Structure to design on (295 residues):
């Protein structure tokens, strides 16, 4: 069951409802609950992707555990048996698609790290030879590997598009010292994940992180390196100079482009075949990242 709006949880205090996730306020903690909703081009599609919320949550849980020596994070538990009593009656709905996390003061910046030139980074480079104010070598192609990963922050928009900004703008927004800490931490997390994934056949082209502060300590929050927040490319098919096959929702975007939807309401339904193939791509990513075959 998709539980698209989690109507059954009306007695919990809704902290925030995002495009694909609900967050509930439990006092000093939050409950992150991932739905099967999928968004593309800033619209929530009317058709859910079966098990998507569970897949993304379990990938994030894996990374929080994997990275715990690299960075402190907000993850407390994803085990319903360890949840507060008032949540246990919802076990059937929230199991495997939820996490109990610490509350933090969220830093209002999307922390993007790029190891390859793709998406908005490629568009920006094509027009002016740089990304977020970082000059790059001439002659790079779409999907080119960068000599060193780059930190390219963006604004964190509540609705509509995030906008790429320079590191200088970020420093003016949140302060130079905190900006440096966030940049160093983002690059170290990306490199740890990149080096873990490549032998498993996945290129981590780019990804975005969010951070919060907890008593002055920098904490990794939100979801981490899922197919919704990262570009995962099959390494055995990689070739610079073109767009790449991927284990993320690019497949859904490509379908929507193919039917010439004008990215305005009404938002089209997804055919069963697209839903099933998208689920398969998410499950492939889950299996390659975690080494598990089943959720």
């Amino acid at each position: 069951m998709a539980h698209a709006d989690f109507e059954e949880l009306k007695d919990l205090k809704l902290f925030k409802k995002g495009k694909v996730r609900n967050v509930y306020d439990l006092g000093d903690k939050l409950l992150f609950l991932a739905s099967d909703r999928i968004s593309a081009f800033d619209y929530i599609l009317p058709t859910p992707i079966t098990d998507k919320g569970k897949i993304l949550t379990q990938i994030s849980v894996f990374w929080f555990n994997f990275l715990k020596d690299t960075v402190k994070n907000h993850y407390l538990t994803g085990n319903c048996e360890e949840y507060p009593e008032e949540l246990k009656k919802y076990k059937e709905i929230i199991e495997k698609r939820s996490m109990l996390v610490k509350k933090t003061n969220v830093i209002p910046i999307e922390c993007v790290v790029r190891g390859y030139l793709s998406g908005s980074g490629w568009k920006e480079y094509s027009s002016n030879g740089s990304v977020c104010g970082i000059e790059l070598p001439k002659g790079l192609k779409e999907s080119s590997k960068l000599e060193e990963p780059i930190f390219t922050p963006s604004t964190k928009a509540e609705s509509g598009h995030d906008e790429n900004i320079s590191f200088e703008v970020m420093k003016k927004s949140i302060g130079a010292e905190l900006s440096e800490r966030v940049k160093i931490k983002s690059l170290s997390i990306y490199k740890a994940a990149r080096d873990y994934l490549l032998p498993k056949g996945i290129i981590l082209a780019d990804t975005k992180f969010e951070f919060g502060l907890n008593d002055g300590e920098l904490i990794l929050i939100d979801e981490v390196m899922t197919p919704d927040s990262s570009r995962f490319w099959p390494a055995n098919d990689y070739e610079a100079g073109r767009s790449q096959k991927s284990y993320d929702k690019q497949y859904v975007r490509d379908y929507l482009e193919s039917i010439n939807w004008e990215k305005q309401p009404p938002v089209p339904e997804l055919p069963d075949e697209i839903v099933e193939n998208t689920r398969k791509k998410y499950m492939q990513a889950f299996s390659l990242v975690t080494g598990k075959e089943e959720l």
About this structure: The first strand starts at residue 13 and ends at 17. The chain has a mean pLDDT of 94. The CA atoms of residues 3 and 93 lie 7 Å apart. The chain has two domains: 7-103, 106-266.
